[in-house]
Write a structure and sequence with these properties.
The protein has one domain: Arginase, Chain A. The chain is an alpha/beta fold. Helices cover 40% and strands 14% of the residues. The protein is globular.
C-alpha cells in the first residue's frame, strides 16, 4: 500500500492577490476545528517558497516574478520526483496554481517515457503565456508551460529577453519538450477564459466539461468520461483549484467565479477520479484565507481533501488486496 506524502508549497508568487501562502495554515486550522488527525497521519515536507521576494521590485511585467518562480518550481519538481521514486504518493498542497507546473515537471522527470494525462478542475484555463497574458500573473500560465505553448498566433505582449529566457527555462523544467499533449488535457468546469485561451481550446479540441454538463449528466458519468478520454495515458495527475467551486462557497480564493461546483459535488468528483489506479499525484491550490470570513473556504476545502485522500488510500488498499 502506497503511503501518502504531503508536499507543502506556500509560494504565492504567481498570484495577483496576496494571501494564498496562508492556505495551508488555514487547512490546518480547519483540520483542528474538525477534531481530525489528518496532518498527524502523513509525513510532510515543505518546499522553500521565496515569498520574501514579493517585497522586491518586480521587473517582469509580462510574467511577474518569473525568476523566483523558476527556482520554486525546480524545488517542487525535485520533491515530487523524489517522493515518487520512494514509491509514495505525492499529495501537493500549494499556494497558487503556477506551482502545478513544478508538480507536472516532477512527475515527468520520474516517468520520462510514460504518457501523462492531466485533469484540471478549475474556473480558469491557465493556458496563457507571457505573450498573451493580460495580467502577467503566472498562475494563469502553468498549462502553457507543460504543453510548451507560446500561442504566438494570439500575441498581445512583447516580453523582454530576460522574461523569455526564464519562460523557456520553465518549459524545459524536468523534461525537454512538451510534458503533455493537448488531447491528454481534460478541463472540469472551466468558465472564465480570455480569447487567446479560447483559441487554443478550439484549435486543439481540448475537452472542457462545463458546469451545465456536469449537472445534466451527474458527477459519476462526467468522472468516468474524463477518465475514458485519457485511456491512452499511463498516468494521470489531478489538479484541484478551489475556485472551481461556485463563488458562494469560495470567497476565500483570489479569483472566485459564479456558477461552479458545490462542495458535495467537488467531494464526489475528487473521490471518484482518485480511485483510478493511474492517478499518481493530486494537488489542491489557491486557498486564500485573507479574503475569507470564519475560514469557510479552508473548511470546505478540507472536507474535499479528506474525501480525496480517502479515495487514494482506499484504492491502494483495494488494489493490493487483489
Amino acid at each position: 500500500m502506497k503511503k501518502v506524502k504531503l508536499i507543502e508549497v506556500r509560494s504565492e508568487l504567481g498570484a495577483g492577490t496576496r494571501g494564498a501562502s496562508m492556505g495551508i495554515e488555514a487547512l490546518r486550522v480547519a483540520c483542528w476545528d474538525k477534531g481530525s488527525d489528518y496532518f498527524k497521519r502523513f509525513n510532510s515536507i515543505s518546499v522553500p517558497d521565496l515569498n520574501y521576494t514579493l517585497f522586491d521590485k518586480d521587473v517582469f511585467p509580462n510574467a511577474h516574478r518569473i525568476d523566483s518562480i523558476l527556482t520554486v518550481q525546480k524545488n517542487i519538481a525535485n520533491a515530487v520526483e523524489q517522493t515518487i521514486s520512494m514509491d509514495m504518493f505525492p499529495l501537493v498542497l500549494s499556494g497558487d496554481h503556477s506551482n502545478a507546473h513544478g508538480t507536472i515537471a516532477g512527475i515527468k522527470a520520474a516517468y520520462p517515457d510514460k504518457t501523462l494525462g492531466v485533469i484540471w478542475i478549475d474556473a480558469h484555463a491557465d493556458i496563457h503565456s507571457p505573450y498573451t497574458s493580460p495580467s502577467g500573473n503566472v498562475h494563469g500560465m502553468p498549462l502553457a508551460m507543460a504543453l510548451n505553448f507560446d500561442n504566438l498566433e494570439r500575441q498581445i505582449n512583447d516580453p523582454a529577453p530576460e522574461t523569455v529566457f526564464f519562460w523557456n527555462s520553465l518549459k524545459k523544467l524536468g523534461f525537454e519538450g512538451p510534458k503533455l499533449a493537448p488531447e491528454h488535457l481534460v478541463y472540469m468546469v472551466v468558465r472564465d477564459t480570455e480569447e487567446p485561451e479560447d483559441y487554443l481550446l478550439s484549435k486543439y479540441g481540448i475537452r472542457n466539461f462545463t458546469y451545465s454538463e456536469v449537472n445534466q449528466k451527474g458527477i459519476p458519468q462526467v468522472a468516468q468520461e474524463a477518465l475514458d478520454r485519457l485511456q491512452g495515458c499511463d498516468f494521470i495527475y489531478v489538479s484541484f483549484d478551489v475556485d472551481s467551486l461556485d463563488s458562494k462557497f469560495s470567497k476565500g480564493t483570489g479569483t472566485p467565479v459564479e456558477v461552479g461546483l458545490t462542495v458535495e459535488q467537488a467531494k464526489e468528483l475528487n473521490h471518484l477520479l482518485l480511485q483510478d489506479p493511474r492517478v499518481v499525484c493530486y494537488e489542491m491550490t489557491e486557498i486564500n484565507p485573507t479574503l475569507d470570513t470564519e475560514n469557510t473556504m479552508a473548511e470546505n476545502a478540507f472536507d474535499i481533501l479528506e474525501a480525496a485522500t480517502d479515495a487514494i488510500l482506499h484504492r491502494e488498499s483495494k488494489s493490493t488486496a487483489i
